Amino acid sequence: MVMVARGISLMIKKWLRTGGMILLMALLMAAGIGGMSVQAAEDQNTTTVSGKIYDCDPDRNYVYSDPLSIMFTGASSPAFGTLTLEGKVVKEGKQGNYVSYGVDGETAALSYSCNGKYMTSVKEQWHLFSDDGKIIGDLELDEKIQAGALVLQSSKDGVNWRKDVELTNVFEKGTGQPGKFSTMRDIQLNNGTYYRVIVAYKTEIKRGESQILFVKYSNLEYRKTVEVYEFYVYNVNSVEKKNRDVVKKNLGTVVNTGLNNGFALEDPIKVDDPHYGWTLGDFFVSGYTRETKDAEGNPAFLKNVGDEVVLYFNLAQNIDALNGDDTLIIMTDRDGYDQYFQTAKGYGGRGTLIVRYTDHEGVKHAPQIYTDYLEANASSGADTIVKLFEEGDYEVALDYELRRIGKVFAVEINVPNPIFTWNYRIFFRFSVRNGNCMVYPFDVKTGAELGDTAWTKNGFRLDMARSRYLTIDVKRTVLKKSGNTYSEDVRFNRPAKDGESYTDEGIYTFRVNNLYTGESTEKNIYVGESAVIQALAKNKVTVEELNNLLKEGTTINEDGSLVKPES
Questions:
Q1: Local confidence pLDDT in tens for the 567 residues of the chain
Q2: How many domains would you assign to the chain?
Q3: Is residue 73 part of a domain?
Q4: Can you tell me the distance from the alpha carbon of 505 to that of 490, in angstroms, rounded to the nearest whole number?
Q5: Are residues 324 and 393 in the same domain?
Q6: Residues 283, 402: one domain?
């Protein structure tokens, strides 16, 4: 009976606090007008996400799932700020019960900006009030909420969630707002990821004063609010364009690297090793046309137009019970570093994936590091996209730590003894190359593509179509007239560069070679305004053939047309 009375009291309290707006919102929700909505901001690369806002029992720990909590939606909600997705959203829809955003690209970010409505110091208005609690619903934070908390969770399936970001005291006076608090990783976007953003804060208002005998005191009222945003984000260029026709499996070999040495050793797995007889998972590549090898024997994957070369990882184990043994787990490595890639200490997590790219000029780019890879980006039995690859050379490493969990009186404990810890590494190299053997000449002024034996008075430039590993040689010859015939004089024969232009008059012959397929292509381009240059191009004749025609009495017009003598 007491609980019922308390519940009625809380409902009346909320009615007095919010007036008739609650009744209106209840009617709208009953009519089916409510729930999560999506609204595009003025900037095409920024999308506003509207979530659900809960007015919770101020005497409890932000229990927004409580039936007595009032849910607001839409523009009338008392939200403290706005959550935005920064990225080029080109497709919106539904992923199960979640709003989905298809992003064009491998980068996106989340930002929260407060509107300042609770930043006032006027006590007679709702204003922020510091909260020493640490619990929001069934989520326990590491720090006190104080002037507001923001939590980001992610999930592979929309059911099992992990905490990615925790910010507390975010709306403290002087700091204002969190702004951009998370950048989505390309692995998350390529595979599609569910996200949940929770914003919680406590507010206070003074409702006049009361006096008992000679003592005056303020009538204070409190409110706890939770904003919940749930949605799904994916990269439309990867999730919707998987090519799995050709697959290369089993890239890399696992080795025991010893302990605390930057995963530097390469000891084979022996019979007394806890990793003996089972594999963590497989890396494999798909989306290529043909496989060959480079000079060092590493795989080289050739792709044609339309191919999407994708590296996947298939996790074959439960990382909390490796090989079916619930005492053997993937451990969080807080002091890890990779000696080969020279990464800083402390990058760790439950498995760390490192990918380094070397371009066609031999420049090694900074390695991309994905911490907590096994926990956050792979689920047992599922193929997880690691990355989409263009031409270049790649080095990939997966560093992880195993630990044996001891049991004392059937209670699991984490045994800190180093003899119960092992470090392992899977490492491999591969290359991606374009399988074509083409280079494209374009008129330097009109931009039109020129075919074989084409003529242009302006000159041309070469476009390798991002095929960085072709060899191109260009020869230029000019014509010399002797009497009534012409001869060719070679002025240069040298390697060509992508984007290089050729405007001097002459006959250009360029030869393209693909070192990985052994194929070659040759084309001729005629540059200049002279009649004889035009005649060679327009009539598809060689210099020798033109000389024979001239000996027979053929003449050349200014536009390059040939006039044969009357018989």
A1: 333 343 444 443 444 344 433 333 333 333 333 333 444 444 458 999 988 888 888 888 888 875 545 665 444 456 788 999 999 999 999 998 999 999 988 889 999 988 877 888 888 888 889 999 999 988 999 999 999 999 999 988 888 888 989 999 998 865 557 889 999 988 888 889 999 999 999 999 998 888 777 778 788 999 899 999 999 999 988 755 555 556 777 899 999 999 889 999 999 999 999 999 999 999 998 888 888 888 888 999 988 877 788 888 989 999 999 999 989 999 988 888 999 999 988 767 889 999 999 988 889 999 999 988 888 776 666 678 888 788 899 999 999 999 988 754 445 555 554 458 899 999 999 999 988 888 889 999 999 999 999 999 999 999 887 777 888 999 999 999 888 889 999 999 999 888 899 999 999 999 998 888 888 889 999 999 999 999 999 999 999 999 999 998 888 898 989 888 876
A2: 3
A3: yes
A4: 12
A5: yes
A6: yes
Q: Which residues pair with 509 in a beta bridge?
A: 475, 524
Measured distance CA(288)–CA(242) in Å, rounded: 11
Whether 359 maps to a domain, the answer reads: yes
Residue with tokens 């039109």: 448
- Return the ∠ at Cα 182 (arms to 178 and 185), rounded to 5°: 170
380 is in which domain, residue-wise? Answer: 247-434
Q: Please say whether the beta carbons of 271 and 403 come within 8 A.
A: no
Using CA atoms, how far apart are residues 491 and 496, in angstroms rounded to an integer?
A: 14
Q: Are 400 and 279 contained in the same domain?
A: yes
Query: Which amino acid is residue 512, in one-letter code?
Result: V
* pTM of the predicted model over 0.85: no
Residues 95 and 148 in one domain: yes
d(C-alpha 189, C-alpha 529), whole Å: 54
For residues 444-475, b (16+ Cβ closer than 10 Å) or e, as one string? eeeeeebeebbbbeebbbbbbeebebbebebb
